[in-house]
């Protein structure tokens, strides 16, 4: 049995909920494709919260059984959609709280003609804990999460020891967590929070090489133009029986 039960408080969220106003093309994409690709979940008290006891049959949602990949904070789908196109054998669940960004993702999905993505408008960290069985996720992607620079806001950072407990519980043995950030202080924070976790191992014993299939998004390009270094990390879920 795993020594650490999953624990995660979501009283403080790791994102800022921005305006939900869509432009005309986003609205059309939502109306045309939302019913097919956006999964509704039972809500908690907050609009982005997932209710206790909420359940989703992911095999039914995708119409097939396949390895599950989860992305938290998929934005407008800049990396999600091309990466999903390159993983047709996987079912990919993306969480994003900004509805216009989800609509942009839907537009990209439609243009690329892919069918292996489902999007949920919800707090992804909370949803990971509630909507997935233990040991059911083959990969988790958290790329360029908000770094919350000010020390008093560090409690809002997505990557934490508590969240790592949830990730370790939901990943299948051998499953991987892929992270990337363009802020060095957040990269070092991630290492501090994750390197000593008993159920996760740093695959590269340091920084990971850039994931070749992850495209350079507009956000990442801005970081590079500003002179920031991109730090990638990869952690693997280890078998507790080996500890």
From TrEMBL:
Positions in coiled-coil regions: none
GO (cellular component) term, any one: tRNA methyltransferase complex
Entry-linked CDD domains: AdoMet_MTases (cd02440)
One of the Pfam families matching this protein, by short name: Methyltransf_4
Enzyme Commission (EC) number: 2.1.1.33
Biological pathway: tRNA modification; N(7)-methylguanine-tRNA biosynthesis
Residues involved in substrate binding: 150, 182, 217-220
GO molecular function terms attached to this record: tRNA (guanine(46)-N7)-methyltransferase activity
Signal peptide: none
Matches recorded under SUPFAM superfamilies: S-adenosyl-L-methionine-dependent methyltransferases
Record's keyword terms, sorted: Methyltransferase, S-adenosyl-L-methionine, Transferase, tRNA processing
Enzyme class: transferase
Binding positions for S-adenosyl-L-methionine per the UniProt entry: 71, 96, 123, 146
Matching InterPro entries: SAM-dependent_MTases_sf (IPR029063), tRNA_(Gua-N-7)_MeTrfase_Trmb (IPR003358), tRNA_methyltr_TrmB_bact (IPR055361)
Keyword Manganese listed: no
Enzymatic reactions: guanosine(46) in tRNA + S-adenosyl-L-methionine = N(7)-methylguanosine(46) in tRNA + S-adenosyl-L-homocysteine
Biological role stated in the UniProt entry: Catalyzes the formation of N(7)-methylguanine at position 46 (m7G46) in tRNA.
Family from the record: Belongs to the class I-like SAM-binding methyltransferase superfamily. TrmB family.
HAMAP family: tRNA_methyltr_TrmB (MF_01057)
The protein's name: tRNA (guanine-N(7)-)-methyltransferase
Name of the encoding gene: trmB
């Amino acid at each position: 049995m795993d020594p650490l039960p999953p624990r995660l408080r979501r009283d403080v969220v790791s994102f800022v909920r921005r305006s939900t106003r869509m432009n005309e093309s986003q609205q059309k994409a939502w109306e045309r494709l939302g019913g097919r690709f956006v999964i509704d979940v039972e809500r908690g008290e907050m609009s982005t919260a997932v209710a206790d006891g909420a359940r989703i049959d992911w095999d039914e949602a995708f119409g097939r059984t396949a390895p599950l990949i989860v992305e938290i904070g998929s934005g407008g789908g800049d990396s999600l959609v091309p990466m999903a196109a390159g993983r047709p054998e996987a079912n990919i669940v993306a969480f994003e709280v900004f509805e216009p960004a989800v609509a942009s993702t839907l537009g990209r999905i439609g243009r690329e003609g892919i069918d292996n993505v489902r999007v949920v408008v919800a707090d992804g960290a909370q949803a990971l804990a509630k909507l997935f069985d233990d040991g059911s996720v083959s990969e988790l992607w958290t790329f360029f999460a908000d770094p919350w620079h000010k020390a008093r806001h560090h409690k809002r950072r997505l990557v934490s020891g508590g969240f790592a407990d949830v990730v370790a519980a939901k990943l299948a043995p051998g499953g991987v967590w892929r992270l990337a950030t363009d802020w060095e202080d957040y990269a070092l924070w991630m290492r501090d929070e994750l390197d000593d976790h008993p159920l996760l191992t740093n695959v590269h014993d340091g920084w990971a090489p850039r994931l070749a299939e992850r495209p350079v998004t507009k956000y990442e390009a801005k970081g590079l133009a500003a002179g920031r270094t991109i730090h990638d990390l990869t952690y693997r879920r280890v078998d507790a029986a080996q500890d």
